[in-house]
Amino acid sequence: MKKWMISIAVICLMGALYMLPVAFSERQEDITLKKGENSCEILIEVEGQQDKIPLETYITGVVAAEMPVSFHKEALKAQAIAARTYALKTTNYGEKAIAPTVARQVFYDEKQRKTNWASNFLGNEKKIVEAINETKGQVLLYHNELITAMFHSTSNGKTESAYGYSGNEIPYLQSVASIADQASPKFEAQQEWTLAQWNSLWPVQWQPSDFNRIQLFYNESGRVERLQLGNNVWTGREVRTLLGIPSTDFTMNYDASTKKVRVNTQGYGHGVGMSQYGAEAMANEGKTADEILHYYYQDIEIKKIDACLK
After folding, report:
1. What is the pLDDT of residues 284-295, one digit of tens each?
2. Please, what sign has the CA dihedral across residues 172, 54, 283, 120?
3. Domains of the chain by residue range
4. Any idea what the Cα angle at residue 82 is, between residues 219 and 222, rounded to 5°?
5. Which of 193, 190, 189, 225 has its CA nearest to residue 208?
């Protein structure tokens, strides 16, 4: 009886020893897989930030900086997808640094968000993070390539095409109507300069009579393509940069009674791609983030990237 019991114990012990490497091997495989998944995480290098930032954390900071947190979640989701696409395209999936400025994408780190939102930080952060999580990994593609997902605050009622902006034809960046932008608080603006202040900005000296002989040539989206004064010619973009005005849809005149130059503009930003206030209007009409993006970017696909296969 004892010998039989000893034999069973030996068999059980041998079985346990035999199974131990298998179980250990399975645990090691699980760890390896998780480690492999983490190694595929895309990190974004933001100029001025000490450490690289995980992609989705970076997008949280971009959406918080680029779009009012009060906007509808579907508009925030559209912004998240556009911002993620722009970041990956600009940095080549994290291989190059990106500036946190309006020339690229504005970025607020957590410290800045806490400062901006103060007592509303937790609620605002939750809303932004939900928009990020619900679109995690989603990007915009054209012919299976990341698009240049340009966006702007407010159009003049019609977005600008890539050709109108730069002279380069890009199929997915065409001009579309965005009439709801006209209700935006940033739709119309007016700025004034004394003639001395005005002349300090230009490479030529203007006289009051010059404002009666300037010629403004507009493109199909209603923005200034070029300004001509005698033999001097400037593009609309050059004038916008030179004066620091909100858009290239502008008029200008000299008021003899106040002796000031007045410039009126419509829209805010370069006007190409998605209008953020237009996206908000569409979201409030019940449109989804996908519908918003397909409207502002023509013939694109929305897909989820696999960082390991990039």
Report:
1. 999 999 999 999
2. negative
3. 43-153+274-304, 188-266
4. 10
5. 193
